[in-house]
Amino acid sequence: MKDAQPRAIKLEDYTVPAFLVDRVELDVSLDEYESFVESRLTMRRNPDCAEPSSLLVLDGEDLELCWLRLNDNELAVNEFRYQDDRLEIPNAPDQFTLASRVRLQPQNNTSLSGLYKSRSLFCTQCEAEGFRRITFFPDRPDVLSVFTTTISAPRATFPVLLGNGNPDGQGESEGGRHWARWHDPIPKPAYLFALVAGDLEYIEDHFVTRSGRDVTLRLFVEAKDLDKCDFAMQALKQSMRWDEQKYNREYDLDIFMIVAVDDFNMGAMENKGLNIFNTAAVLANPEITTDATFLRIAGIVAHEYFHNWSGNRVTCRDWFQLSLKEGFTVFRDAEFSSDTGSPTVKRIEDVSLLRTSQFAEDAGPMAHPVRPDSYIEINNFYTLTVYEKGAEVVRMMRELVGHEAFYLGCNLYFERHDGQAVTCDDFVRAIEETSGRDLSQFKRWYSQAGTPRVEVSDDWDADQGVYCLTLRQFGDPSPGQPEKQPWHIPIRTGLLGAAGPLPMTFDGTTADERVLELTESEQTFRFTGLSERPTPSLLRGFSAPVKLHYPCSRDVRARLASVDPDGFVRWDALQSIAQEILLASVAANDRPEQPDATLLEAMRSVLADESLDGALVAQMMLLPSELYLAEQLENVDPLAVHRARRGLQQQLATALHTELLDAYNRCNVAGPWEISATQIAQRSLKNTCLGYLALLDDDAVRSLAHQQYWAQHNMTDVLAALRTLIHSDHDASYAPGQQALSDFYTRWQDEPLAMNLWLQVQAQRPHPDVIQDIRRLRQDAVFDLHNPNKVRSLIGAWSNANPVGFHRVDHAGYQLLSDSIAELDPLNPQIASRLLVPLTRWRRFDERYASGMREALERLIAIPGLSKDAYEVVSKSLA
After folding, report:
1. Cα–Cα dist 412/410, whole Å
2. Radius of gyration, CA atoms only, the chain
3. CA dist 417 to 7, 35, 230, 314, 413, Å?
4. How far is Cα 474 from Cα 389, in angstroms, rounded to an integer?
5. CA gap 199, 157 in Å, rounded
6. I need a surface site. Which of 376, 433, 630, 678 has the fewest CB within 10 A?
7. What is the pLDDT of residues 364-420, one digit of tens each?
């Protein structure tokens, strides 16, 4: 950290760039010990700059400058200034070329930002501000340029040289070196720049666009991983066709490439024509990949491809508009996953993530609007709020204006702003124009932080046949926003009678379902012509990211869980019953002797209904997570939450033993493995049942897990069985579990992705003594602090997803996490900063835990040289 208190960057201070870069010519010379980058920028003064200046300011971080030339004249040291990551040149002309040569040492770049080495592979990551670590440039997303990149390296060790755009020449050079040139004809911001050099092989396929153009598709990997590429390639082709059909978007270059990289801070990056992927987000085969990961890979491949238009061809003006590309594209990849899989299950999974983690973000010290007002380090704002809540904002617009007007608006947005860097307002304006709707109030979703609360009451007039729903909305204070104005909230609603859905007559029109638009602090909606008191089916499809409370009996919720036509409402009703029971148990610090009859019978009914999608049944059988339950409490005792949830699970397992075993056997179907909806559903329900049954003190049941593990049919079943064996109430030395762990290590020690699962399953063992395993595994040869996947699989999985294992009353968990962050921060500030999340919520916890979390944060902020990434999170957490 170069300053004791880094300066915040504010949205209100935005000004257009003083200079533009029309063309960028790069010559990148790579070698094992040092590399050189020569750049030639064709620049001109920006005619839209209201206050022209002759001072040229470029970004440049950790660059060793060799020479600098303005219009081919080398500048003397007194003709420029390079200090504090800024290159300043006074008296710049209106039009000029600026050339420079810098020396880099990518092999020492552990931050994985800019140009770095991932094992034997050179690669780049430039979003958000990594290009300034490669060469001098106005490194901001509203400077779009045409790039030509020539890469040279020793052929023997780096036979493959890749860049953005289309290939534009290659050849041999002296000393066993070779070169390749790439030209990207489409202007792009520097954050989309990419290059890769290494010993790679590839699979190739082709895609014919709707206009008849043939596009070459290549997926580059290390030779050992060629057998893990086919699924991602098929997902890519499916994504390309879907984007043409759904959004009328056609790919624009001659080639589209994906490269798998093992050391990568994110999941993947949408660099124009050359997507760089974390290996965990692209490589797959059934022996080492679970169903959940297959689906995740399909979604990520789609996401990065969809960025070609929602992010690349139309990009964001500044980083405050990050959700313009990320939220919109998350919405698009969720649509894709819904269209190609189970829409209800996909929606439930997305809502579970929102409620568990994004709502917690909204309630914490790092709470910020979808479009933030300020930031110290932009990497800290690649958050669930920007991505997942941003996607919900787009989804709500579609709810309000209807599908037809929404997609017309998207096409207008793409066509109007192609080749531009724009704002969230530009996107909303396009939707307004095609729908005729005024979305001025709706835009508060972009500017107001926090999760709205909606309280519901109702009234029934039997004589008049009139039913009234009254909705009230509330906004809690958040950092910098003590008061909130009413949001524009779409609440999709239906009415149920004794025989099923009832017609909804409102404002003179009748429909089976309506979107109620809550725009005021309190509104009443009056439905007429009813012959019986209805049961409201509220927030269908989770039509808005709100906390909705409708006081009704468990019997009413059980009926919704059984008969509501909306799958999300069915799941949510059952979750609500379980949540109520669990929170009462936490409050009493005890558990009832018998499971609640309403919940028990509802789950029994769901298990017995073979007409339901097995994946949906599995979701309905899962109890609210410990993390989600903790977010409902003012004073969190994680051990009490764990005891309550584990106790209810055991009660349900005992009472439903026969039904669970029947469902397990019904779904335990032999035959060749497929990544099909039917088989995914079968495995999902089977393994959910196994998880329940394993809680029983029954050797016969435990043998099911043992048999399933040793059958080694596929990684989904193997991992579920392994988790069951080591996550049961047995101690860590339980012989069958340790035997399976040892076997897993022996089988897969040479497969990094499988070993990530091996680390993760141990890190999530729900017991306070798991900290001993974390310390031991940190010293294991499998673990590498420099590799983000390993850090996430061990330290992240333990601290974020294992409350009972992390929150110890002796504070040993907090000490270990803060020590790990302090060690990691100088190496990779981005990953270190993200590990801080569990400590930031200390104010929600009982003082027995809160004091230790606070002390861990205080130790970190006292570290000299703490990165600005970590400083921002720690300082806001302690404020």
Report:
1. 5
2. 28
3. 32, 37, 35, 6, 6
4. 18
5. 6
6. 678
7. 999 999 999 999 999 999 999 999 999 999 999 999 999 999 999 999 999 999 999
Integer Cα distance of 513 and 491 in angstroms: 10
The CB density around residue 869, as the number of other CB atoms within 10 Å, is: 25
Contact 600, 641 (CB under 8 A): no
What does each C-alpha distance from 289 to 216, 284, 618, 698 come to in angstroms?
A: 27, 6, 20, 30
The alpha helices in 536-673, defined as continuous H runs, are 554-563, 567-588, 597-608, 614-621, 626-631, 638-655, 657-667
Q: Within 10 A of 526 (CB to CB), how many other CB atoms are there?
A: 14
For residues 735 and 725, give the distance between their C-alpha atoms in angstroms, rounded to a whole number: 9
CA distance 777 to 133: 33
Domain ranges of the chain: 1-199
Number of alpha helices (DSSP H) and beta strands (DSSP E) in the chain = 31, 34
Which segments within 266-313 are labelled E, that is strand? 268-269, 274-278
Token pair recorded at residue 553: 């009996």
Per DSSP bridges, beta strands 466-474 and 547-549 are unpaired
Tokens of 450: 């926090």
**1-199 CATH, one of 2.60.40.1730, 3.40.50.300, 1.10.10.10, 3.40.50.10490:** 2.60.40.1730
How many CB atoms are located within 10 Å of the residue 436 CB? Answer: 8
Sign of the Cα pseudo-torsion (232, 235, 237, 239, in order): negative
Phi-psi region of 125 (alpha: psi -120 to 50; beta: other; left: phi over 0): beta
Rounded CA-CA distance 400/379 in Å is 32
Phi-psi region of 311 (alpha: psi -120 to 50; beta: other; left: phi over 0): left
- Is pLDDT of 2 > 60? no
Torsion 9-11-15-16 (CA) sign: positive
Q: How many CB atoms are located within 10 Å of the residue 230 CB?
A: 14
d(CA 88, CA 851): 47
How does DSSP classify residue 353?
H
Number of Cβ within 10 Å of residue 36's Cβ equals: 16
Buried b (16+ CB within 10 A) or exposed e, 593-611: eebbebbeebbbebbeeee
Are residues 45 and 94 in contact, defined by beta-carbon separation less than 8 angstroms? Answer: yes
751 and 757 Cβ atoms separated by less than 8 Å? no
Whether 569 contacts 539, CB under 8 Å: yes
First to last CA, the chain: 19
Q: Both tokens of residue 764?
A: 């999530």
Residues identified as active-site: 304
Residue 72 backbone class (left: φ over 0; alpha: ψ -120 to 50; beta: rest): left
- Residue that the structure tokens 């049954």 belong to: 693
- Nearest CA to 275 out of 297, 285, 263, 260 is that of 260
pLDDT digits (tens, 9 = 90+) for 148-179: 999 999 999 999 999 999 999 999 999 999 99
Integer CA distances (angstroms), 651 to 384, 576, 600, 619, 654, in order:
34, 18, 9, 18, 5
Quote the tokens at residue 490: 């779409």
Q: Which amino acid is at 111?
A: S
Q: For residue 84, give Cα distances in angstroms to 60, 123, 134, 380, 467.
A: 9, 25, 16, 21, 66
Helices (H), 196-229: none
- Which of 360, 313, 311, 312 lies closest to 331 in space, CA to CA? 311
- Residue pLDDT, tens place only, 803-845: 999 999 999 999 999 999 999 999 999 999 999 999 999 999 9
Closest CA to 765 of 790, 739, 741: 741
Helical packing angle, 567-588 and 597-608, nearest 10°: 150
Strand partners for 81: 88
Q: Are 426 and 417 in contact (CB under 8 A)?
A: yes
Q: Which residue has the tokens 């996430």?
A: 792
Report phi then psi at 167, rounded to 5.
Answer: -65, 140
Return the bridge partners of 602, or none: none
